[in-house]
Amino acid sequence: MGLGDRLKQKLRAFMERPGTTVSLDRYEAILPRILDLEDELTALTDAELTERALALRDLVSEAEDGQPFVTLAEPLPIDEQDLAEICALGREAGRRALGERAFDVQLLGAMAMLQGNVVEMATGEGKTLAAFIAAFGYVVRGSRVQVLTVNDYLADRDARWMGPAYRMLGLTVDAVGEASGHDERAAAYRCDVTYVSVSEAGFDFLRDQLVLRAEDAVMPGLYTVIIDEADSILIDEARVPLVVAGSLADVTSDASAAATLVATMRPGRDYEVVDDGRNVQLTDAGAALVERAWGGIHLYAPDNLPKLTAVNLALHARALLAVDVDYIVKDGRIALVDEFRGRVARRRRWPDGLQAAVEAKEGLTATDEGEILASITVQAFIALYPTVAGMTGTASTIGDELREFYRLEVAVIPPNTPNVRVDEPDRVYATIEEKEEALMAEVAAAHETGRPVLVGTLDVAESERLAAALREHGITCTVLNAKNDAHEAVVIAEAGGRGTVTVSTQMAGRGTDIRLGGSDEQDRAAIAELGGLYVIGAGRHDSRRVDDQLRGRAGRQGDPGGSVFFVSREDELIVRHGDGIGGTTAGDGRVSGPHVHWAVGHAQRVAEGVDFEIHRNTWRYGVLVERQRQVLALRRKALLTTDAAAELLRGDTTRFPADLDAVAEADLPADPDADDLAHAGLELVTVADRFAEVEEAIGEQAAAEIARQIALYHLDRGWADHLGMLADARDGVHLRALGRQDPLDEFHRLAVPAFNKLLTGVDTDTADTFMAARIDSADWTPADAGLERPSATWTYMVHDNPFGSEMERMFANLAKMVLGRR
Ligand SMILES: Nc1ncnc2c1ncn2[C@@H]1O[C@H](COP(=O)(O)OP(=O)(O)OP(=O)(O)O)[C@@H](O)[C@H]1O
């Protein structure tokens, strides 16, 4: 079966997937038992309640030879009785300490999370409290818990907010943020429950992989993780590599010269945008222009590869990345915009020189990208936790991905109060202009009545354009986007007020709590009477989840509300994946017909299918590297915590010359072996003998420490080189894919022997360094032999390569073939 057939089969399976979710029957049956227990618990004093929770923990200790508060590699299993007891205690602590008694649906959510599921709970249904109960449950079953959030703010907020309830149950809790120092981090991770953003946790994990003394690591290990906004972290960010980079990289580039040159080029003549706007290539005329401008060079000569790369990157930056869509310029820096959240994506960079190309395009100073010292994708990082649970408002459409990539199931929790929001069918127009005209009229009509309106847009530029148009129509509105996020809290607080019109990017779509009647909710009843918040989407996103999150801003906790999306045939999603969508067009541009709505949904499903395939494909590349990383991590841990390096030297019988000065003077062939050395009359000594001498001179412990530091240096150096090599190999492999070899097989053919060489290389390099050095004091470090470690200076996330590949185009065409036209 060829690659194409395999892809076709997979895509078909994806399109025909069953939407199964976890049954809640079992958990519902426990609810009465929780009520009974609750009666008992309300009679206790606070101190007695704490005692009761601690008694649960003691059960684990007893099972583990009476050790107090043990942390197990995996939590003990949780049966019905445990679930009931945990939920009753959690509910009671929440009621007393926070003034919030968990609703039944929150308990269902907590129980489902305690069984290692991802729960879908609608906006405002109180996921924070449900997660607290689940976290408590995992701790009393012997685990430590990290609650992963999407940012520092939420980690801090939730740890503070839930803190009193945890403490009432005898648990310790803390948060880690970017500003936390080393000792604070170490202490926070040793609490029973730690709230931390996924990036901070990932960076700490990576930095721990680079420490030179075991006691400098901040994380005591990875146990249970509960993931907030699970779809966002597990799917949208899954492919993002977290990176720790060092300062020794050589940064010379032609970025700025290339940017100047490319700015003079004309689209169509000098370069072409291809693949539905996902790729760009130089024409012959363009290449000739570059060659002339750079003094008659031959651009495609191997020596000029760096120049060709610089031109290609500059073209990408110019033609495919747009300011106020993909990034904004803020305070003299490029800030990437997160496509799913509409926010500035903090600490994100484009990979492989693209960042520098965009900086050059905007006339900014290039920021250093450094050499990658350690790296892990979000998905691989999450996979390291033995126990995973999560929660989000939108999980049911990604059940398959969660199952395939994480072996997680989704439990859909019903809302506490039924959802009465009215979701109208999409309104489809022929052109963007007609669509926006109709959207204006819809906003104006709703605004006239005083009903609050939230207009959702796809990017910063669109939000600004629509806001300006609304103002021209005499409608006052507030804009919320990555550029003016400083006033977010105020804007959101008032977005549900009478007559308020808010134009926002996806920023308003997740985690924002829009209250009817504005912050004081004074007008609440009247606004509810008007129909509640009206969400109007200016276009559909590639992912249904983003649209659903936007809709979810209306109709929260049983409020009235409404939503509708406006779509045009010219929208990017429809152009790329919609196949025209059919229908007949009325005088105002409105398109109608039996298949129009189906066609819009179809375009979105194709986009999602493409994304899934790319995710799966990048993951296949990542699997091998991740396995290598794990092997290396074990090796490193052994070096760090045992005297493995000293053992190695002690047992090494390779002979080296005893007197290094004599070697310089001896008459030797280019690459001498031991025989050559002996022949030249040099005295030889084995590594083992030399090591014994050094031990004698500076003490066993000091010698072992020096051996350790040399080995760690070579291991880390080798890994950084390996990562660099793999990145280059991947690019090369894709070129080779055109030559019909399976690129993944090719990649493995390169990566496997390189890694094996790395592992053996560490041992020989360690011996070489040791023998070449003159170690006469315990203070000796590898830096004395010129082996400088790059300091782990930067942490960042690599932004998904935005420009398309052969692969993506292929998937999109296949998806269309598989789905067919109706
Ligand atoms: N059992 C409860 N009793 C009373 N109030 C509650 C209860 N549970 C949650 N709340 C309140 O509901 C609001 C929403 O809670 P929370 O922020 O946890 O929701 P969420 O599910 O995380 O929403 P989002 O999807 O917007 O993040 C909060 O103001 C919280 O205090």
Automatic annotation (TrEMBL):
Per UniProt, subcellular location reads as: Cell membrane; Cytoplasm; Membrane
- Record domain Helicase ATP-binding: where: 108-283
What are the Helicase C-terminal domain coordinates in residue numbering?
A: 424-597
The main location is: membrane
Keywords linked to the UniProt accession: ATP-binding, Cell membrane, Cytoplasm, Membrane, Nucleotide-binding, Protein transport, Translocase, Translocation, Transport
Q: Which InterPro entries match?
A: Helicase_ATP-bd, Helicase_C-like, P-loop_NTPase, SecA, SecA_Actinobact-type, SecA_CS, SecA_DEAD, SecA_motor_DEAD
Instruction: Give me the residues that bind ATP, please.
Output: Q106, G124, E125, G126, K127, T128, D513
Which residue range or ranges hold the SecA family profile domain? 9-597
GO CC annotation:
cell envelope Sec protein transport complex; cytosol; plasma membrane
GO BP: intracellular protein transmembrane transport; protein import; protein targeting; protein transport by the Sec complex
Q: Which GO terms describe its molecular function?
A: ATP binding; protein-exporting ATPase activity
Entry superkingdom: Bacteria
Topology versus the membrane: Peripheral membrane protein
Reported EC number(s) for this entry are 7.4.2.8
> Record keywords: Protein transport included?
yes
Question: What catalytic activity is recorded?
Answer: ATP + H2O + cellular proteinSide 1 = ADP + phosphate + cellular proteinSide 2
Task: List the NCBIfam families hit by this protein, alphabetically.
Answer: SecA2_Mycobac
Q: What does this protein do?
A: Part of the Sec protein translocase complex. Interacts with the SecYEG preprotein conducting channel. Has a central role in coupling the hydrolysis of ATP to the transfer of proteins into and across the cell membrane, serving as an ATP-driven molecular motor driving the stepwise translocation of polypeptide chains across the membrane.
Please state which protein family the record places this protein in.
Belongs to the SecA family.
Q: Please give the subunit comment from the record.
A: Monomer and homodimer. Part of the essential Sec protein translocation apparatus which comprises SecA, SecYEG and auxiliary proteins SecDF. Other proteins may also be involved.
Q: This protein is called what? A: Protein translocase subunit SecA
